[in-house]
Amino acid sequence: MKKIYVLFIILIAIFTFSSSSGSVNTILSEFPQKFSNEEHPKNSIQNTPVQYLNISGINIAYREFGTGDPLLMNQGIDATMDDWNDTFISILASKYRVYIYDYRGMGYSTDNDSKHSIKLYAEDVADFISTLNHKNMSIYGVSMGSCVAQELVINHPEKVKKMILDSSTYSIRIPETKELLGYLYSVISDPTLSEGNKNQAYANLLWNGTFKNLSTIKNDVLVIVGSKDTVTPPILSKKLFELIPNSTMVIINGTNHGGSSKNPEEYAKTTLHFLES
């Protein structure tokens, strides 16, 4: 049964949402209303050594934390692995072997003359998983990283164990992403921004989206979004939830776009609950 949850910082409200197929998805009370207060070792991203993988002639920079099943983190546009929240990564690393990395041409990673695209970033992820000799990984993608995750699971479903789509959309060219579209054009026109930033903006603008393929996804998927997200509004996550068969949706009340930096404990522990269920 598909599930939607609205997670408040203190409590959970229960309501129903009717999907386009006519079925009713209910927030169920078994979702953990009280998170554990156990202490987690605090990892410092900045103080963790950077490692490199050679993939298709470029060096992809990454860091790893913890032990256990692998969990790969896809960042959002303009962000590098240095921008992940220490608390968020530390809680995830208490249960999983967490990999964070820089996209090609960003942060510590190098680039070549390949034309940037969301699908190319997904191919880099597939090669990353294989080069590290993993059969598959669970994937967490935020914002642009969630689009990369969708392309990965559609084209390489065998590489994905479970998937988390945070602050996501299935297309850039829809009315609900007007704010995001405006931001992408502003990046391209800003002379102070790097080539890496502009390449990512172009990659997003050229993306054809995944709407037609979402129903083919068979993997377990968590769709998570902040109730105050205006960049990728919750209505987009609800549509993803409707179209992806084995999906669960969580709305974090009072949180904006990419909320793991503002509410790292709620996002991390929600993710752990999903991965361990």
What does this structure look like?
By secondary structure, the chain is an alpha/beta fold. 29% of the residues lie in helices and 22% in strands. The chain has seven helices and twelve strands. The protein has helices at 86-93, 118-131, 144-155, 178-189, 195-205, 234-243, 264-276, and strands at residues 3-7, 12-13, 16-18, 24-26, 51-55, 58-65, 70-74, 97-101, 137-142, 160-166, 220-226, 247-252. Helix 1 runs parallel beside helix 7, helix 2 packs across helix 3 (144-155) and helix 4 (178-189) runs antiparallel to helix 5.
What's a quick, concise take on this entry?
The protein is α/β, with parallel strands linked by helices and 277 residues long. Helix content is 29%, strand content 22%. It has a ten-stranded mixed sheet, with helices on both faces.
Layout of strands and helices, then pairs:
Layout: E1 3-7, E2 12-13, E3 16-18, E4 24-26, E5 51-55, E6 58-65, E7 70-74, H1 86-93, E8 97-101, H2 118-131, E9 137-142, H3 144-155, E10 160-166, H4 178-189, H5 195-205, E11 220-226, H6 234-243, E12 247-252, H7 264-276
Parallel strand pairs: 1-12, 7-8, 7-9, 9-10, 10-11, 11-12
Antiparallel strand pairs: 1-2, 3-4, 5-6, 6-8
Main traits of this protein?
7 helices, Rossmann fold, alpha/beta, ten-stranded mixed β-sheet, globular, 277 residues, two-stranded antiparallel sheet, 12 strands
